[in-house]
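Practice problem 4.
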């Protein structure tokens, strides 16, 4: 089995794949920059207990991290927990991507993993959207990663507004009921602006990337804020919650294969 861990700025996602590449579980933990190697190992062990999985059955691990101080911490935690040093997504990892970024190691490892999974599952050209702490939109044509735009994420933008505008109160976006475009209270207006505004931003960015691609694009989105936002987009967007996990599994498989003898 392969254990995949994606350390993001706000949350850490943990996924376990069986020998056939089926995702057995996907769990989400809060990312804490203050946790030690042992605390991280305990958290991961707790996830295995929650889902009734056997950590001793893990025969390979892969780690993606966009939080540099935690990369070494999780590397040590995974090694201690499984007895195997994790493969870390970064320079030297074979991805199959033709990356047009001027400095390749500046591309987030989570975006790399998502791109690998998107290419394997969706028709090209692809606009891949990740809605997390930051919102990123990437254009992929064939196996070529053309580039991306990175914007403040939904929650980050709201927190900045609360911090700088004293008259605007903190609000919750946790609602299953549709949000009306025209708010009748300050809270309703903020909720509308946050959701419809982010959705309209995405629609506009996708339109421009489609123009750059020169042909209709497939739009796939992942990330914790995606379910809140996508319902207000005019574009058709495929929501894929497991995109990063599947990408990490594919990267592990690609880099674990033994070279064929001549």
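Answer key:
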């Amino acid at each position: 089995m392969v254990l995949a861990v994606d350390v993001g700025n706000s949350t850490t996602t943990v996924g376990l794949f069986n020998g056939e590449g089926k995702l057995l579980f996907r769990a989400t933990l809060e990312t804490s920059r203050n946790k030690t190697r042992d605390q991280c190992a305990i958290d991961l062990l707790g996830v295995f207990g929650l889902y009734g999985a056997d950590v001793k059955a893990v025969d390979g691990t892969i780690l993606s991290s966009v939080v540099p101080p935690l990369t070494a911490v999780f590397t040590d935690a995974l090694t201690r927990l499984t007895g195997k040093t994790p493969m870390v997504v970064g320079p030297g990892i074979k991805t199959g991507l033709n990356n047009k970024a001027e400095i390749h190691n500046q591309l987030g490892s989570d975006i790399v993993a998502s791109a690998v999974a998107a290419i394997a599952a969706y028709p090209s050209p692809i606009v891949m959207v990740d809605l997390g702490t930051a919102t990123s939109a990437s254009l992929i044509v064939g196996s070529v990663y053309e580039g991306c735009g990175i914007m403040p994420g939904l929650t980050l933008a709201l927190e900045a507004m609360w911090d700088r505008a004293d008259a605007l109160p903190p609000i919750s976006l946790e609602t299953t009921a549709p949000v009306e475009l025209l708010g009748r209270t300050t809270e309703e207006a903020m909720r509308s602006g946050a959701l419809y505004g982010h959705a309209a931003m995405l629609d506009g960015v996708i339109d421009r990337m489609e123009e750059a691609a020169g042909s209709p694009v497939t739009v796939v989105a992942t990330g914790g804020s995606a379910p809140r936002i996508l319902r207000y987009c005019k574009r058709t967007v495929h929501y894929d919650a497991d995109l990063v996990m599947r990408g990490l599994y594919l990267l592990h498989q690609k880099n674990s294969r033994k070279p064929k003898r001549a």
